[in-house]
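Handout, section 4.2: multi-component inputs.
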Amino acid sequence: MKNKNLRYLFLVWLALSAHAHAQLKIEITGFGSNQMPVAILPLKGEEALPQKVTEIVVGDLYRSGFFKMVDSGGINPVPADPAELQYPTWKARGADAVMVGSVSPLSNGNWDVRFRLMDVLKQSQITGFAYQVAAPQLRNTAHKIADAIYEKLTGDVGVFSTRITYVVKQGTRFELQVADADGFGAQTVLASNEPIISPAWAPDGNRLAYVSFERRKPIVYIQSLLTGQRTVAANFKGSNSAPAWSPDGKRLAVVLTKDGNSQIYLINADGSNVVRLTNTSTIDTEPNFSPDGQYVIFTSDRGGSPQIYRVPAGGGAPERLTFDGSYNVSPRYAPDGKSFVFIQRAGGRFNVAMQDFVSKQTQSLTENGVDESPTFAPNGRIILYATEIRGRGILASVSSDGRVRQRFSAETGDVREPAWGPLIKSP
Amino acid sequence: MNKIFWSLAVLSVLAGCASKDVQKPVDVTEGKPSQPPVVATKPTVPPPTITPVKPPQVTGDPLDPLNPQSMLNKQRSVFFDYDSVIIKDEFKPLVTAHARYLVANRAQKISIEGNTDERGSREYNIALGQRRADSVKQMMILLGVQEGQIESVSFGEEKPRNQGHDEAAFSENRRDDIRYAGDK
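Output:
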């Protein structure tokens, strides 16, 4: 990519020591070309909180690569209301927008968090919200504030309050974890001495499908993140793998070998109503639904080498989508359905590439050479993927324009198999 | 005794025929560097664990795979060349010996676990490992084993025997393991 102009090695250490073992460390390695200057003032009263809300907001906005964080220090007293803002000060510091607000305790033990984002030139409100939340929700509230600011200033949906899942391998132990999109608050949802791969979020964000080898063969399970309850979705004779949810959350595409070679089938979440979708004597795998549910893209070697194909979800003739190179695998639809990302091998190196459905143009997005398992953020602006650094498995992200880059690594162990969760519609 | 001799002889002939049938070259890509192809197809380091099957010197029933002393207990792995699902000649006696036991013991069930090296997509490697497992399964079926006795499954790249990242490790990881129901 054209990232020669990127500034490297801006380290953002956000791991709280108390929870360091359960966090991913984030490092930003590239920024957007146009960064909007924003000042985030401390929320009045937030020093009473165990973690300052604005630190999380600043971290989110900064790491997105789209904002230049204007120094907000040295203002005393801290204004809690736009009426107290000295706009010339912020104009002089170069800010286009400035956030002010407050945190105050409520009688029921909850907190009132409110903010306003002000346009410095127009001296008018861009957006503003008030939240009444319990202490454990403060981190999520901070992400929602960042989402609101991001959305107003970039015109895109923010994904700071979404979640990601991934697998951590520590020695011979495998853990399926779920964390906030910034890598915080990681929780282990499944721990096993056998491999776990291919986690996939249900569209409701409350369930994960994944493949576990705990019974000496690949079996597809579905697990509720609310109750922890687990059910078998596919355990047919042979191998069961590569689960993908339909957008309505009712059906799963899976790869089964019950009839011989690896083929794609559609099943209900409880494993019933099995319908074969592909019919070849070759490998068909890695299905992924289009956002409108009309198509399934997948990897097949029916043409002699693994390439990406698209088939109507109701069945029909598959159409080949990739022609460049002899190894194109792991396709994932963009949330707007207009393009897909995949892993492309060129010169023995595996990188993330993106192809437009209409123009058929392919753009290479990474150059690590060992990249796997790309997954789109639900706003389509970021692609998270697995890679390696100095022999260790880590996650990394790249913006869909190839400019903004981040790395996520665990304190110990290999991180792999990422999947970015859906947008959850809630206040 | 004579009967056994003849049935083994017939099986051997069958094995000879069968091996021809399973030797269909199938294009398998395993994250192989696309260039230069000639180098990639011939690993320079020979797989260290590959040895021809020798006449067993054992105590107990030499043909009981659950007897730790038996050849059928010790010889459970079939190794594959890079990019290949073809059962090499040196492993045909091993597959044949297991098939004979399974033909003689119809109640015995096995699983064949296919594996790949670490290069390339994890899910695509599950499918490649499945193809390797099916390769041995097909040979066994041609030798008279009933399909219901065999489950072929794949671990893809997830359960490497050698944790290294060089060709020597890769060649140990491109394998099928035969596992008997009743194995610990």
